[in-house]
Amino acid sequence: MAPSTPVSMAAKLSLLLILVAVLVIGSEAIAQGRKLKETNMVFYMHDYETGTNISAIPVAGNPLKKWFILEFGTIIAIDDAATVAFERNSTEIGRLQGMYVNSAKDGTDLHWLVSLVFTNKAYNGSTLEIQGANREFQKYREVSVVSGTGLFRFARGYATLETVLLDLDNLNAIVRWNLTVLHY
């Protein structure tokens, strides 16, 4: 018979606390009797690397090449306006803040890691966390909504993206987002 290895009381207590935490977090929504809600919204992201209101700026990349959106390895920090209409001065619902990385050797794929930070009255203070591959030269692309805060706690869903304006000479774009989110 193999000798038994004693397990310390601290290890047992730690394991028990982890198990309790998982059960509490996993059952919070069920215990409170909340039902899943679906929120759909359409907005326009204004992404400008040039001009008077720059909202996207390359912060790192290949040291042997110019850093820009179509160059593999370029990392761009963003703080883009999200508006209700195509026009830049239309009502703002929030800001898309975070970064994207050109993660394809041929320059056609941006990996997104962004927060949609709401500033409008309806969702002010809430956020949605969005990530995924944005194959920017496809007419329609889909990225994942992986989490949220405030009114969008425990959110999950997706967004379909469509570039409605692409000015490659000035590196500016307007992207239409069609967002579907499930949340409590």
From TrEMBL:
Highest rank taxon of the organism: Eukaryota
Keyword Lipid metabolism recorded: no
Main localization of the protein described in the UniProt heading: secreted
Alphabetical list of InterPro entries matching this protein: Allene_oxi_cyc_Dirigent, Dirigent
Keywords: Apoplast, Secreted, Signal
Signal peptide: 1-29
Cell compartments where the protein resides: Secreted, Extracellular space, Apoplast
Lyase found in the keyword field: no
GO aspect biological process, one term: phenylpropanoid biosynthetic process
GO cellular component: apoplast
Alphabetized Pfam families for the sequence: Dirigent
Family of the protein in this entry: Belongs to the plant dirigent protein family.
Oligomer status and interactors: Homodimer.
Job description of the protein: Dirigent proteins impart stereoselectivity on the phenoxy radical-coupling reaction, yielding optically active lignans from two molecules of coniferyl alcohol in the biosynthesis of lignans, flavonolignans, and alkaloids and thus plays a central role in plant secondary metabolism.
Protein name, UniProt field: Dirigent protein
Organism of this sequence: Tetracentron sinense
Source lineage: Eukaryota, Viridiplantae, Streptophyta, Embryophyta, Tracheophyta
